[in-house]
Amino acid sequence: MADKVGNIRAKNYYTDVPFAQNQFYVKGMDHVDWGMKNRLAQIFNPKSKNTVMLAFDHGYIMGSTFGLERLDLAIPPLVEDIDVLMATRGGLRAAIPPHYNKGIALRCSAGSCVLNDDMSHEVIGVDIEDAIRMNASCMAVQVFVGADGQTSSIDNLVKTIDAGNRYGIPTLGVIAVGKQMERTTKYFLLATRMVAEFGAQIIKTYYCKDFEKITAACPVPIVLAGGKKLPEDEALTMCYKAISEGARGVDMGRNIFQAEDQKAMTKAVAHIVHNGYTDTQAYEFYCDMKGKC
Length: 293
Description:
Elements: H1 34-43, E1 51-55, H2 59-62, H3 71-74, E2 84-87, H4 89-95, E3 103-107, E4 109-110, E5 123-124, H5 128-133, E6 138-143, H6 150-167, E7 171-175, H7 185-198, E8 202-205, H8 211-217, E9 222-225, H9 232-244, E10 249-252, H10 254-257, H11 262-275, H12 279-290
Helix pairs in contact: 7-8, 9-11, 9-12, 11-12
């Protein structure tokens, strides 16, 4: 019991000041539970309201990937400048020190393209209990709208959303594109809106023409998927355009860990996402840090 001796009896209840009723800064998340808001705040920076995710979950599809042969060597030097580690539970447990104070986007869908190129028949490879054990900030599930396995991938998504809602863990819906699938404004408008309406709290999708329509029509935050490796100046331009057109962050993988200077590229991306750099300013920064371009 607290010692009563020396307590100040007079108290100030600020009766003339209304109770704080600030809206939560993450789009569409005003009415979710406190725990989910807390996890979303681990993902989206409260000052910029944006996020830089570093994706290194490629091994679950491709095996050993160029630039990610040694996760324990490739990822730690880049952690300082990112907000979220997007990875598989195996990669995190085996190779990433647990003392990094970063958000975790945990890959929960599982599949492979080893035998054929159709990945749309994925399964859920991580249940909610393991997501809790991994201290996940969000759970990532790939969704194949318009593919042969559309129904099963939607089933994976909604079951993950339901489980996440029970325990206050957001779900990141990853819009998948196969070789035979559209990559048009019409397709991404449909897919992102569908996944948001299913209940995903964050959507990850690719850049396309009229991207501002995608972000405007989606009631939850859009995070840009980095996609295939581009020249560094082109990757930074894509990042800048996406943020300028309403994306609330980027999830870069190959465009960071396959860059000529991974550390400089990570910092350049972070400057666009959090500090308002243009693509030209970011590329000049990259060149200065790298030494030449």
